[in-house]
Amino acid sequence: FKNISGERRIATSCSYSHWNGESEFQIAIDLISSGKVNVKKLITHKFSLSEINEAFIVATDKEKYGAIKILISP
Fold it and tell me: DSSP 3-state assignment of 33?
């Protein structure tokens, strides 16, 4: 199944919404903001706006190109 935009999402779930009384979402945000978790590694491909056509080719076939997250910047 492919979305029209080529976007795929990773959904996570668990049986706990809190850990030791603290929100798991807040724990995740704190880990990211402190640099303990590097989410920049999830960006596998970067394109300039002038390369938009190539970016959409990669986005529509992420398995072929090994793409996780595609970044398009002006």
Answer: helix
Say how far apart CA 51 and CA 49 lie, in whole Å.
5
Q: Rounded to 5 degrees, what are φ and ψ at 51?
A: -105, 25
Enter the tokens of residue 2. 């492919």
3-class SS of residue 59 = helix
* C-alpha span between 29 and 24 (Å, rounded): 9
Q: Kindly report the pTM of this predicted structure.
A: 0.55
Count Cβ atoms within 10 A of the Cβ of residue 6 and give its class: 0-12 exposed, 13-18 middle, 19 or more buried: middle
- Please state, in angstroms and rounded to a whole number, the distance separating the CA atoms of residues 65 and 34: 31
User: What's the CA gap between 34 and 28, in Å, rounded?
Assistant: 10
Percent of the chain at pLDDT > 90 equals 47
